[in-house]
Input
Amino acid sequence: MVAKNLGEGGGVLEITLDAGPDADEAGRPPQHIDLEYVQRTIKGITRSFVMFDDIYINHSQSVVNPKAFALKFFRNRDKAQQRVNMTYLDARPERQIHIAWDWFFNGLAAVAWAFVIIYVGEYTHFSIAHDAMLPAGILLGTFGIIAFMVFYYKTQDKMIYRSYIGQLPVFDFFHMPRNKAYNHYIDALEAGINKAQHRDRMSMKYRLVGELKLLRRMKEAGSISNTDYETARSKIFKHKEYTV
Output
């Protein structure tokens, strides 16, 4: 694996293959940009995707001022930029939706109980009414609001691009079906992956070897676990076109 900083900002990791025809060109800057796309969300996350030289895609993610969030689950590390050869990607993304219902219902319950406690303590003459109920209700309501914020932050709708044979996630997009620029880029990415896989009549053997090396570099970079890597490697080894 070749790792180096790109540009003045630093913190950029370039992942390249160390064998095959791509290796001689991996360190050089892009010759031409095919298409760029940037996603920004109100969660403070910015993702950038750049297709170039007909066969590569650079993707990166950054978080605006992650230290400003006090709670651990709000923190999200800046992810290094990666260069990936589209030859080894599956052109069909997987949509993955995760809704943090537990946080939603916790927030709903907390707000409801806060309302009851404040109402009983301030507006009734029940024997259980007490002056401490107001601050207790406020605290409980505050927790409910925080729970709703966590629900929003942890709920995700993503389109995941995986490696072709091993089916390990390489990168993903926030799913934005109503965004024209997003739809255009997804269509262009699918066409770019298909074009890269058929360049120079590339054999399946070369693609399998290249994907295996890509996944190994991702494991070394910490992008995938050793267990996931071993599972994907087993799938590649079992492919009828693979030879050692």
Observations:
- The chain has two domains: 33-88+175-238, 101-153.
- The CA atoms of residues 205 and 240 lie 9 Å apart.
- Helices lie at 101-123, 133-154, 180-197, 204-220, 226-238.
- The two ends are 20 Å apart (CA to CA).
